[in-house]
Amino acid sequence: MTPVPDSARTSRRSLLALGLGLAAVAGCSAPTTPEPSASRTPGSSAGAAGTTDVPTPLFPGAANGVQLEDDLVARATLVLAVGGKKLDKTGRRLVTSIRDQHLAHAAALRTADPTDPRSTGPAPTPSVSDTPSSRPTFAKAVQQLLTAESNAAAAHRATALPANALAALLWGSLATSAGATAAILKSADLAGDKPDPGVATIGKVRPRAPMPVVTVVAAEQEMVRQLHALIYGYQLALGRLKGARRDAGEAELRRHRILRDRLSTRLLDRKADVPVAKAAYVPSTNPRNAATATKLIRQMETGFQPFCGLWLAAATTPAERTEALSQLSRSTTVARQWGASLSTWPGWA
Questions:
Q1: Which of 32, 140, 179, 245 has its CA 20 to 30 A from that of 116?
Q2: Which UniProt key words apply to this protein (predicted)?
Q3: Which fold has domain 6-33+210-337?
Q4: Residue 36 burial by CB count (10 A; 0-12/13-18/19+): exposed, middle or buried?
Q5: Taking the model in full, what pTM does it have?
Q6: For residue range 222-235, what is the model confidence (pLDDT) as tens digits?
Q7: How is domain 44-199 classified at the CATH fold level?
Q8: Is 115 helix (H, G, I), strand (E, B) or coil?
Q9: What does the domain layout of the chain look like in residue ranges?
Q10: What is the pLDDT of residues 213-225, one digit of tens each?
């Protein structure tokens, strides 16, 4: 079988540094990436309610994406405006983080090439344009934001599945982010009788790193390598967990084994090499007790997400993209369940 050339493979060193911490594999050269795109595009259009006018994006699908993200900015800003005493410090921090992530998304979509993390674009200025007397109740504003997040997740997903390469990752990342945010808002129940805004956290806005595009075979091989490491790490962690946490860990371990075996079979069908598991891996955190076992799983699932993104960008059919995007969403959800914050760009390094 012909090995995949180095020029077609990702930089595992740069991705592993993100925190998976288990796969002791040598790094190899990352493919060269294009020069940064221009940060602004010609033309202008009215922004969504609660935002300022900004240049019109030309990237395919970006105009609709901008409208969705601007609407989410406006709705989060409205929740902050009508929250008053019903929105405590923790709740206000959560909604502010939601708003800021959507501001970052909107700014990226206003660049000539939003798949290039080095491009920068103008973000809308959050504001509430209507009068206080016409604003919805706090409960209604929260529900409107939650519904808008769910709708945006579905719309971004629909854009991701027929897209190719980094465009698929861009829209898939936005879909994953919006879907996770909707789940967080539902769990937080900000307008309920017993709100719990601390149930999950959304991380500070941070930039993405450029993501290489590899062949689907190389991406599947990389997934298998990381799944070998994940399975090893879960087995270490499970020995320190009990009760519901152990049950959850065992269920995820089974899912990872099923995915590893499915991808291994697919690689064999493609007449490609199937990476074998190493005898042992060095965990990023030594699971000495339940707390450190939880930390290890959190680190592994967080570090696994860029490899899911690599796979999504490499996928060549809608079916492959569906599978990769579902795994990215799943890994993002699992990481949050073990205490991870939702990142600005799930699936990107």
A1: 179
A2: Signal
A3: Ferritin (1.20.1260)
A4: middle
A5: 0.83
A6: 999 999 999 999 99
A7: Ferritin (1.20.1260)
A8: coil
A9: 6-33+210-337, 44-199
A10: 999 999 999 999 9
